[in-house]
Write a structure and sequence with these properties.
Helix content is 54%, strand content 3%. The chain has 288 residues and is mainly α. The protein folds into 3 domains: 96 residues, DNA ligase i, domain 1, CATH 1.10.3260; 97 residues, DNA ligase, ATP-dependent, N-terminal domain (DNA ligase i, domain 1), CATH 1.10.3260; 52 residues, no CATH class. It has a two-stranded antiparallel sheet. A hairpin with a 2-residue loop joins strand 1 and strand 2. Helix 1 runs antiparallel to helix 2. The longest helix is centred in the middle third of the chain and has 15 residues. The chain is globular.
Length: 288
């Protein structure tokens, strides 16, 4: 699947503020996406390359992205930096540079979703002394093949600033409409998402097997369950108005909220935001 189709959809989503319109654009995108890459499209639409609990993050620094843009387009690095300062948007800077590149793309290849995703995943996973050079090389390779609109969204995704205004619940609405016949069935998908918060896997199962695919989603050790989080209100009176006069209140203790999974000699600890926080707590790992 060409990444240009995804970038075109992102541009349309960016131009609208209505959630229903956003959802229907995503429905069309999901219906056009082959099942073997729909998981990748779902992740990228949230500005990710993996579910949150996997601990794989992009968030490349702007200075590295500027170097990659300069390398890919033949633009002086200083000029790219000045344009970035003027536009205030790394995506628009990449788009401008690709539109005005001095390096002609004689060997330019069409970007596919698979290529964009695999390159971004390699960027996220790169570590060690030479990781910066590898990240710049991978990103500049993508930008060298990108059309201007594609470059805009690649640069935003890699810096963690996609700016589409799309959240996971909007994707669940779109998946329900695309594969279960209507958004009123979102709750069925959300129940599965609550116990296995991997929107890419859920999207792929729905695309491949429809409603039957949801039966494969169940609680799994090593995969955190989405916790019920408290909602902050301004006053005790507002709390009573919201939940009724019969209620129970308790002191809130400061500390870390943990979800601990223990199985087959393994231990993983997750935060309330589904982040893997196992490493900072060796005493708890040993204790359980």
């Amino acid at each position: 699947m060409s990444f240009s189709i995804v970038a075109e959809c992102y541009e349309k989503i960016e131009a609208t503020t209505g959630r229903i319109e956003m959802t229907m654009l995503l429905v069309d995108l999901f219906r056009r996406t082959p099942p073997d890459v729909i998981d990748k499209v779902a992740y990228l639409t949230l500005g990710q390359v993996a579910p949150e609990f996997a601990g794989v993050e992009l968030g490349l620094g702007e200075k590295l992205v500027i170097r990659a843009i300069a390398t890919a387009t033949g633009m002086p690095q200083q000029k790219v930096a000045e344009t970035m300062k003027r536009l205030g948007d790394v995506g628009k800077t990449a788009e401008w540079a690709v539109q005005n590149r001095s390096t002609l793309g004689f060997f330019q290849e069409e970007l596919t979703v698979g290529k964009v995703y695999s390159s971004l995943l390699k960027i996220a996973e790169a570590s060690g002394p030479s990781s910066q050079d590898l990240k710049i090389r991978l990103l500049s390779g993508l930008l060298a093949d990108a059309e201007p609109r594609e470059a805009r969204y690649i640069a935003r995704i890699v810096t963690g600033r996609l700016r589409l205004g799309v959240r996971d619940m909007t994707l669940l609405d779109a998946l329900a409409e695309a594969f279960l016949g209507g958004r009123e069935r979102r709750e069925e998908i959300e129940r599965r998402y609550n116990v296995y918060p991997d929107i890419g896997r859920i999207a792929r199962l729905l695309a491949e097997r429809g409603e039957e695919g949801l039966s494969e989603i169940r609680m799994t050790l090593g995969v955190p369950i989405r916790p019920m989080l408290a909602q902050r209100l301004k006053s005790a009176e507002e709390v009573i108005e919201k939940v009724g006069e019969t209620l129970l209140a308790e002191l809130k203790y400061d500390g870390e909220r943990m979800q601990v999974h223990v199985w087959d000699g393994k231990v993983r600890i997750f935060s309330r935001r589904l982040e893997d926080i196992t490493h900072p707590y060796p005493d708890i790992v040993q204790g359980v």
